Every structure is written in C-alpha cells, then in structure tokens.
Amino acid sequence: MASKLLQFQSKASEASKLVAKHGTSYYKQLLEQNKQYIQEPPTIEKCNELSKQLFYTRLASIPGRTESFWKELDYVKNLWKNRKELKVEDAGIAALFGMECFAWFCAGEIVGRGFTFTGYYV
Membrane: is it a keyword of this entry (predicted)? Predict the structure, then answer.
C-alpha cells in the first residue's frame, strides 16, 4: 500500500510540474486566440449588460426552438404511423436513446439524493 501511495505521489508531482511549466503558456495562448471576446475593462456594469444580452437573446430564440420541437414531434408521429416499415436499425437507435434518457434520469436521482443508491437521508 505504501508503494502505491509513493507511486501516486510521484505521478501527482510530475503532473504538477507539467502544469506549472506549460499551464501559463497555454493560458496566454488561449487568451490571445480569443481576445476578440474579452470585454475591457471588466466592470460590473459591463457584466450586467452582457448577462442581460444573453438572457434576452435566449428568450428571443424560444419561438425557433418550439418550432423545431414541433417538427421533431411530427417526425416521431409519422414514424409511429408507419411503424410497420420501421427498420431494425432505427428501432435500435430509438431504444438506445431511451436507455440513455433513463440513465441520465437515474443519475440525477442519485445526485439529488446526495449520492446514495438506497434512499434519502432523513
């Protein structure tokens, strides 16, 4: 056990040195590549303005997203009407998608319970 701990400690030390050596250059390179998105000076007023812009932009995109939702729903209805012609591949993809949704639901429930599998803390 002690040898594993020493191995882990040496690996962590190597990783720390690597980040210390290359982290600042990566940070500077990233900021340089994206400098057109940086607002100068970074004031509270500018942050509030940007948050309002984001909020109202997202609010304005709701009609387009609802239209897209109804198109998807019509497509699913059409698939259901013609389910006799449904290919096995399409059914498999739909089943996998359903299983993925259920898995994310279960993960959310586990997180909501405080990372317990058996139940809520009372």
Answer: yes
Residue 118 and residue 122: Cα distance in Å, rounded? 12
The conformation of residue 16, written as its DSSP 8-state character, comes to H
Contact 115, 106 (CB under 8 A): no
Give the Cα separation of 44 and 41 in Å (integer): 9
**How far is Cα 105 from Cα 111, in angstroms, rounded to an integer?**
10
Q: Give the SS3 label for residue 18.
A: helix
What is the pTM (predicted TM-score) of this model?
0.47
- Rounded Cα distance between 42 and 46, Å, is 7
Alpha helices, DSSP H only, in the chain?
Answer: 2-33, 44-60, 62-81, 88-112
